[in-house]
Design brief:
Length: 492
Amino acid sequence: MEAASYSGVLSRAKLPASNHHKFNPTRVCTHTRSITSVPCRASEGLHDLHKTSAQALTFVSSDSSSKRTSIVGGSYLCGPVMRRNPAGKALCTGGVATYGENVVEDQSHSHATEDKVGVLLLNLGGPETLHDVQPFLFNLFADPDIIRLPRLFRFLQWPLAKLISILRAPKSKEGYAAIGGGSPLRKITDEQANAVKMALEAKNLSVSVYVGMRYWYPFTEEAVQQIKRDRITRLVVLPLYPQFSISTTGSSIRVLQSIFRGDAYLSRLPVSIIRSWYQREGYINSMADLIQKELEEFQKPEEVMIFFSAHGVPVSYVEDAGDPYKDQMEECICLIMKKLKDRGINNDHTLAYQSRVGPVQWLKPYTDEVLVELGQKGVKSLLAIPVSFVSEHIETLEEIDMEYKHLALESGIENWGRVPALNCTPSFIADLADAVLEALPSASAMSTPMSISEEDDYDPVKYAIKMFFGSILAFVLLLSPRMIHAFRNHLL
């Protein structure tokens, strides 16, 4: 995720008891001499995990109320900041859940003779110039799936996002300046879109491929409008996040729901959303190929520690909101290591989480702390793998390649290597194309019920109460000594 993406005022919303996902593992995947063994669930465990991923995008009945509540949380409070408009090409449905399950065609939708198939690639986005950094950060923190305010105070989302973006912009600009003055994410995602289009055409499927970014150009809203203008008749939505999280895939799908709900054409458009794809054979093989290739660059490949670094999420996302991200990440690592073991590669491995922000507890262990521990334990050769990213961006190019590399060498690790992001690796692109083909038959109209928070917004009495108490809270926060001190430091 671009630019240290989270801050931590988190909601208290919980899944009903029936929706809490717990694995019942029937086997454990362990590797000789592994520093951190990752549990490997059997096929029925994967099936449960797939269902949990689907539940994280559907609207469920609350135990304490007959109203609807959304696990992705919050209404679509604001549109993104659009300071400029550069030229750019621009599973929450009644259909597919995740891959590995049987895909059945919805018989209520007949395929037109002149079918126009679209593929929408979703990604985070990133500032392309230093001037873009502050408005990009505003868009990021204005997302209620990133800063999760209590419902009573959600109208404070914009001013709080403005404050955080102003305070964080100088530090973030330093990071982007270190990698050339902007994020390469848009360029790489456009290249991936073109590669997927060519791969599908090679499989005799003519498609239009669109790119929709969550927090910068080309925005998801722009891509959807182009899809509408092109009169697409079936759409596959493919988030470029291997593992599902409510803060990445979930947030993007919430935006799609909001757009589709208010449009007669889009609300009838058959859509299939691929919620996660970390367990696909093509993806696992592609990751194993890159790791094997980089291991061969070391003088003694068998002594190299394989170090998976994944983007973290707050613990409350997993424990309180039912986010399947941690379980999916651990399963992903197990599948990659099993593939490597089948090739005779039995290196030690470990998993840690990077990019934590704010005072709340994040998934552990933390990447920076583990690197220091490994150095103290005498590890001399380490291969870093950005397992949650499929494109190079600031968290690979600056955080891993610069900050973590420096920390590792300073801690006693002598030989450092890093597996590149998948980008446009042919085997990876071919697998994405296969995923689209597999998802297409299940496309059906997107179900977009209104969330409880959106229902409350239509109640004038509740809105007036929120405004009154929220204004008092805003006044107290903005005039607090700590806030005044922060502004003074920024201005000076």
